[in-house]
Amino acid sequence: MSKVSLIAGRYLIIKHIGKGGMADVYVAVDTVLNREVAIKILKGELSSDPVALERFKREAQASTRLSHPNIVDIYDVGDDGMSHYIVMEYIKGQTLKQLIQKRGPLYYTEAISMMKQLCSAIMESHRNGIIHRDIKSQNVLIKDDGTVKIVDFGIALANNAMQITSQDNVLGSVHYIAPEVAKGETASMQSDIYSLGIVFYELLCGDVPFKGDSAVQVVMQSIKKPIPYVKNFNKKIPQSVENIILKATAKNKLNRYENVADMLKDLNVCLSDKHQNDERIVFDYPEDLNLSEEDIDKKRPKPKKATKKKKKAKSKKTNVMMGIYLGCVTLVTAIIVFVILYLGGIINFGTNMIVVPDIIDHKVLEANEILDAKGLLLDLDDIERVLTEDVEEGLIISTDPEVGSEVERGTVIKITVSDGIYAVMDNYVGRTFEDARDELTSTYDNIRVVGEALVSDQAPGTIISQSIEADTQFDPTKSQTMTFTYSAYVSEIIPMSIIGMDITSAQNTLTEMGIESVAQAISLDELDEYTEDEKADLVANTVVRCDPDVGTSYMQMQDTFVTLYYLAS
Question: Does 134 qualify as catalytic in the annotation?
Answer without folding.
Answer: yes
